[in-house]
User: Fold these one by one.
Assistant:
Number 1:
Amino acid sequence: MSKIQQQAKLRSDITRMESDIIMRALVYDRYAVDDDFASILQVRDIPEPIPDSNEVVFQVKAAALNYDDIWGMRGKPLAIPLPHISGTDAAGIVTAVGNDVRNIQVGDRVVSHGNMSCRVCRACTSGREYDCKKRKIWGFETGPLWGGYCELAHLPEVNMVKIPDGISYDDAAAASMTLLTSWHMLIGRARIQPGQLVLIMGGSSGVGNYGIQIAKLFGCIVIATASGEKLDMLKNIGADYAVNHRKDDWDAKVREIAKGITKPWGGVRGVDVIFEHIGGSHWNKELALLKYGGTIVTTGATTGYNAKTDLRQIFFKGINILGSTQGTRAELEQGLYWMSRGRIKSIIDSVYPLERAAEAHTKMLNGKGLFGKILIKP
């Protein structure tokens, strides 16, 4: 950031703090020790935001939890700005716009696209804004006091997407990052095709829920995994087969299913595409399940990053390993379009007020009984 840009930002921050109108926000000003979120999270009164010339202010009707909330409160892997307001996914109604805002008006229903990039570099202008070197995730890397867990939030116009008719604030907030991530993984990166056999790992999670529905939208056969008590729920949202990944032989069950599907057609045994965000001990089992020339696309590693890889699975079988993170604004709009047509639905596990945010985040971290997204409402 140049000196002129730094001075402009400082003036903007000072202007915001001069607002004498107060709103409620979920704030912390130190990191949590041993994931004791209740010890740091507080609902405080802070000044309402005043929009910069290119910004939109909106009343937050619903916001959704993400794992970057946990990373933020831990201060790992990034030491995020303090004092901090988390919240990358927020939906609401526009209350004010800056002088240079052209396509959004007061009263519009909007949802955040939390990938904040420069929009002018080579990566951005080639449709890969998620690779921008200046990229920041709103509500995670931004601040101080700049996220979605508050009564009024502000974002540049380019980071706001209008919510199509037929989609509620709750559904839009749940979809903001998670639907976008799943869409980019399967469509933008893996480029799934009708008739392919797709394995969705962790199907009970937010990204997993959407992954199942997107794969079915594109005419794929879906095997999804979760813990035993959630298997029927996976089938209820479209999975053709459901496997308990808590069992040691879960991969053998997937292999048996895949063999039964491909054998009548004389196909090579194995899975075409694996949707991966678990990592850890499952990694090599996943690679072994892929057919020759198959693809695994990964966006996370909730059970551990330091996974050992059996390279034989990669070079003997010609496997494609694809990384994926977030996605483009256009991809979010595509996903929301299909939501508005009733072909994709948000699965919402539970809704909490700001005052119970620590409980909500602990539930997300533990995952016990969790199916779908957790929302917070100011």
Number 2:
Amino acid sequence: MEIVIRPGDITRETVDAIVNAANSTLLGGGGVDGAIHRAGGPNILAECRNLRDTTLPDGLPAGDAVATTAGDLLARWVIHTVGPVHSTREDRSETLVSCYRASLRVAKDLGAESVAFPAISAGVYGWPMDDAARIAVQTIRDTAAEVEETIRTVVLVPFGDEAEAAFRRWLS
């Protein structure tokens, strides 16, 4: 599996699946979540509402992942995952690890050959960028053997100079 870094706007990635750093409601929000919902159009929100009305009435738990259409995006699917809010009193690293693993497993089940990830939990959820990048890169590498028969390329899409530098440090 090839892991590449392409800084910028994840909504413009030409991949099979884009991972959304969603909130548990699945109904849109700020940051990456809001950008994906805006760029993808109403079909993403419609499928998220259907999930809430059927299989996820209480929302998507942190660390889990679920797929919907990508609507008007260049991708085929959006994989929604809910990252943990960073805490200095409680180690929530395993939940963040689970976001990446669960998203890769969903991508494999969909038959996606390429997947793009943002820096999950590193925005409004307050996860320190360097640690978020470390967890992302290590988890993707650790999960590669499980999914590489399907997934050929993982694209890390950091937003901003600090995020790009952190991802490049951990990928090298």
Number 3:
Amino acid sequence: MEKKRKFKVPHPFVLICILILICTILTYIVPAGTYDRYYDEEVGAELVDPDSFHYIDNTPVDPFEMVQAIPTGMSEVGWIIFLVFIIGGSFGIINKTGAIEAGLGASINAFKKQSILLIGGLMTIFSLGGATFAMAESTLIFMPMCVMLAKALGYDAIVGMAVINVGAVIGFAGGWMNMYTVGVAQGIAGLELFSGMGYRIVCHAALLIIAIVYVAMYARKIKRDPARSLMTGVPEIEETKFDEENIPEFTKRRKIILIWALLCFIVLIYGITHGWSTSTQVSALFLVMGVVSGVIYGMKSGDIADAFVEGAKSIAFGALLIGLCRAMVVILTNGHIIDTILHSMASMLDGLPSIFAAAIMVPIQLLVNLLINSGSGQAAATMPIMAPLADILGVSRQTAVLAFQFGDGLSNSLWPTSGILMASLGIAGIPYEKWLKFVGKLMLYLYVAVTILVMIAYSINYQ
């Protein structure tokens, strides 16, 4: 008998195009509506007037406008796309020197017996990056290295991806010093900047422990039996292959290159935490890092240029996905249905007991992130509504901000509308359905945890 064909999630580009089509159809079904907006000088963002929602004439997006949304979306996030290309090119130069492979080889020898501790340590580092200086786009540059490291340690690409993505996402969910999510949300809610930090740190630690244990258990399982890996049968991509039999020698020049790269990352962290707000500064830093690495290794100028082009080509798939995902936001915005959906979600909380209303704020924010994938953008759109609504429901505004950061943070590992997630999967060579199978159960555990944490926050009148 002929075997039934299993359902297979389409190619990421096809999947996003299907979602773009669905968004377009929704503009014909969902009534158009809008909130009045105003610019708040103190917060430095355009905010929503929570009492101003009103329906307007429908503005459905026609098929040609749908197609136009793709280049429009790419234009709107062009700075991210070009940043990714420059980062990819710069690391292409560093990869050509063999410094990364040689460094990974040395790390493997040092941590072969403590590989689980290495996973936990790296997840903690990326998590602190997410919680403090909003590490998001920059996680892409580490993806090939972490995937190669995971494979060399006997794990699979999913472990390498989880170390970075899940780590950073937990940081966003904790967000105790993230200016772009908690900082913006607290400013809109009229709270003191980074107030309530103590409880947020406790939440961050609790979620990080759950995530590390989950990833470590999966890693240990597939190391004992590689056949249990979710990546079994998935072709390996060239950029993340690690040939343990031919590890380059860890020469003096290669050591200097890695030290130079580390110094550049220290400058990057300092710059981001001291006012760097444009991709121009970050791109320039990575460009210098790559070119100088080639010079240190003694590469000719033509070889440096070739390596840069090859590196940019290897990351083109992920960079284009970022722009493609943005097209959905363009369509929903042009169709004027984002505010209608947001208003409907907020209305669901009316009449609920306060403690349950507080808990339901989390899935509402999680669903909003499907439509608005920017943390600061989501804060600007939802907090002017959720903050006064929290007052009416008897929930503290600090708890409403906590629910926002949980919903926004965790969803960054789930929704295919996230350009960063889809780009990471493309770079790591992981099909979306395989990632969803891995991360879905973890997100369920984390969702239960954050629901409990929000209820605790309500019970102690978190301020």
Number 4:
Amino acid sequence: MDERNYVRSLAERVYEIGTSDEMNRRRNLWSDHNSLILTQPLIYIRAFAAGEIPELHPICTDGFLRGLEYHFKNILYNYSLGDDSIFEPWYEVRAAVITPAGGLWGFPMPVTRPDTARGSFIYNPPIVNEEDLEKFVKPTHRINEAATAEAFERVSEIIGDIMPVVVDRSPAYTYWNGDISTNLAYIRGLEGMMWDMIDRPEFLHKIVSFMGEGVADVQNEAEAAGDFTLYSQHNQAMSYSRELPWPCADTTPVDRSKLQTFCASQETATVSPEMWEEFILNYQKPTYSKYGLLSYGCCEDMTHKFPILKREMPNLRRVAVTPWANLRSCSEQLGSDYVLSWRPSPTNVAAGFDEELTKKQTREAFRLARENKNHIDITLKDVETVSGKLDSVKNFVKAVREVIAEGEWLW
């Protein structure tokens, strides 16, 4: 098999999808939805047990081509699911960002993993006492230009005549590395972090203050260097709106006020709203208030934290409502002023699709959305398995679309 031409054929199909009328229709839908213009509820499949899908298994033997193959195959399979995802007609090469030699914060953040695949792990906190604080290294925004250019040129040589190839030069300290909470759990452990809030608050403040300043400084450096562009945005859905420029392959630098971004604090799910604000949100705010629009929350229950979040983050637009959140309370609190990103439980598809339960839960969510004038979308995420029943996710999309057609969400 000619592996290079095989990968090019996949890229051609993705480019056709990305430039299709259907993608433009979806771009307009998400733009209205994220700008609080009433649309039908939109569906986003964020995970679909990719490891169990035979057609996603790479066949290329060349390692570099294998990576490209897997990327394009994922897009093509995701497109077949029939949700409202947008697939862009360009390819992003990740810049070779330089981080401290010992690790993101100057030292390793080890964990103990089980022998079984996909099992839970145990944190091994590297920071235990005051003396350990000396291990921290202040991060900076730097890029290995030679390595970045080499990767860019290699990808461009393969698919550059098919679709635009761009370099993602955004800093390392974004997304999970930028929310402070994720790395803090590795640094202190979940239990240690929560005990610190009671037993050693000054010690914890020193840690999160250093991390918060580090994230803010790195992102400021990246913006000053012109390393944020219109494709440097993510909101755990589709980053389109009417207020901000649309994502595109334009490499012109922009400041963060033109971008959507995402932040969360899953590790403080069981922490009181007041402690979450004191130890996490206060240190996220200097960085994430600079963006045009903010999406907040991933798997954590934000039911009792929304009042603080709404007060402290004026750029808040999208919020996560998880399976263990109080959906009615969240719906009432959010009203028509925010996008309610509802995340139904993935258990509905994990052991075989449960159509009756999915439709029942969706109808209930839509009735609440109508009562409280919510702008609601549905994100199916964390589907770690479909137990070999490969049509489960497609059937989920089909069932939700049938409920959407009933019009229960209209207000």
